[in-house]
Amino acid sequence: MAARSIIRRHPPTALTLLAACLLAACSRTTAPTSQPSTITATIDGQSFTLELALDNAAHYRGLSGRSHLDPDAGMLFVFGYPQELTFVMRECLVPIDVIFLSPAGRIIEMHAMAVEPPGTPELDLKRYSSRWPAQYALELPGGSIERLRLKPGQKLDLPFDSLKPVSP
């Protein structure tokens, strides 16, 4: 009721105010982030282009739906704080290795994740756990753990300090 009386008494002011509110809302939802969408990292002398998963939607989606992953590609999942992480192979059609990392970039746990049949119910997907609190998870093409000779406790040199998760 009060809004109607303002519009009737001051139509240009009310419309200007409404337009300003709408523009402010649009600018908040469409403003570019300062985070890159990919980073380049070198692991054991091999360069990788890593897609960044910085929010809950990207964490859930991961590499789902991929039928191919280049040998020098992968995904780095960034979380706001160390926590026990569990990953699954949801609708991913290529084998993936997952490496769970501490806040300092040390390898906590690693798994070679096998392809699950498409359409496997969520509750039937095999779980791959960090077993200990991890702040990052790195997914690389299947066989990378062995090929790169990665070991628990090994420190990976990635730009962790510049990566921050996006709040939902």
Please tell me about this protein's structure.
Strands 1-2-3-6-4-5 form a six-stranded mixed sheet. The longest helix is centred in the first third of the chain and has 20 residues, at 11-30. By secondary structure, it is an alpha+beta fold. The chain starts with a helix and ends in a 21-residue tail after the last helix. It is globular and about 35 Å long. Helix 1 (2-9) packs across helix 2. It is built from four helices and six strands; from the N terminus they run H-H-E-E-H-E-E-E-E-H. It has two domains: 1-31, no CATH class; 38-161, Protein of unknown function DUF192 (Jelly Rolls), CATH 2.60.120.1140.
Looking at the structure, the CATH topology of the largest domain is Jelly Rolls
CATH architecture of the largest domain: Sandwich
Spatial strand order of the main sheet? 1-2-3-6-4-5
Unreliable stretches (pLDDT < 50, length at least 5) are 1-8, 13-33
Number of strands: 6
Number of domains: 2
Radius of gyration from the alpha-carbon trace, in angstroms: 22 Å
For the termini, the CA-CA separation is 34 Å
Could you give the order of the helices and strands?
HHEEHEEEEH
In a few lines, what is going on in this structure?
With 168 residues, the chain is α+β, with helices and mostly antiparallel strands. The protein contains four helices and six strands, in the order H-H-E-E-H-E-E-E-E-H.
List the helices and strands and how they pair.
Elements: H1 2-9, H2 11-30, E1 38-43, E2 46-53, H3 56-61, E3 73-87, E4 96-101, E5 107-113, E6 128-141, H4 144-147
Parallel strand pairs: 2-3
Antiparallel strand pairs: 1-2, 3-6, 4-5, 4-6
Helix pairs in contact: 1-2
